[in-house]
Amino acid sequence: MPALLDIRKLSIEFPAAGLQSAGQPGAAVPTRTLPAVRDLSFSIAAGEVLGLVGESGSGKSITSLAVMRLLPPQARISGEIFFGENGSARNLAALPADSMRQLRGSRIAMIFQEPMTALNPVMRVGDQISEAVLAHGTGSKSDAAKLAVQAMTDVAIPEPDRRARDYPHQLSGGMRQRIMIAMAIVNRPQLLIADEPTTALDVTIQAQILDLLAQLRGKFGLTMLFISHDLAVVSQVADRVAVMYAGNLVELGARQEIFRAPAHPYTRGLLRAVPNLRTERGHPLGTIEGTVPPLHAMPPGCAFEPRCGFRIPECTRTVPPLIEVAHGHWARCPVVNVPVVTAAR
Ligand SMILES: Nc1ncnc2c1ncn2[C@@H]1O[C@H](COP(=O)(O)OP(=O)(O)OP(=O)(O)O)[C@@H](O)[C@H]1O
Ligand code: SF4
Ligand SMILES: [Mg+2]
Q: From the CA of 339, how far away is ligand 3's center (Å)?
């Protein structure tokens, strides 16, 4: 399958407030930068759902913001982000701002974690969806309003004509998230980025939203980048899974492979922390000792080394490369590169 999104060697750095690099005496002293995403490459085929997982601060959101070209201006980015199919792919990282504005919200759309902060509290939800249409189309206001109601029907909001006149505070958390999804799909995007779309919701509503995303994917042939810190949630929606740790991609492979035979010690640790049907009641779930290193104190070698039970002295020297441990299954660990086969989930 051809890639719709192809991220190549993406790095994102932020200037470190108050931290400066040492320079020659008298020379202008450059501000030190903090590496938030390092040398990240992955692609998503048309129609595929890629789950991007990792602990808080691992770089998931800023990767998606780089695709949307919504990073704050102080962020420094290098690498390429190709979007498009069959020879028409364009590098979003180098696209003029006008062209990017045309793609954003039409061919590429995003759902954010917290709908209450993403929605305008003093505007009716139907008008907010219509506005997304008018920003990209040439149709009339009444056509946009009809499309908004249709999008609300697509996301299974009951009585969409009436609810279109509600303000966000009149809707439940689950309904607000449906409005966010309606706003994202109303222009029929090819790529939908969902950044923790269910994290703020309780478990039953979360399951309904995941079901809805699966239905919309089938109905509109959506390609999706689905971001979550929760492997259990990702396992319900993703075809392939990418695991990030401290700004690095540490493992990438088909969902079944990652769950059946995780190769990287960090992924193994994450999986031990996910309950499944075989988990014995009363048995504590596994945890990964320690915390993610802060950006200003990244270890020089493998970023996971301080927490890794498999580490050897070489792990502290260089950043390990990604190794293909099985067909299409990559892990950034030259020490433990034989996948461990786990019980079926
Ligand atoms: N505007 C900014 N200025 C400086 N550093 C930033 C900025 N935005 C993000 N970062 C840093 O970049 C790193 C990655 O942040 P990001 O928001 O992508 O993490 P995340 O994986 O989405 O985490 P979470 O699960 O908490 O949402 C973090 O260390 C964060 O502090
Ligand atoms: S490279 Fe070394 S420290 Fe890093 S995950 Fe592998 S064994 Fe652990
Ligand atoms: Mg985030």
A: 28
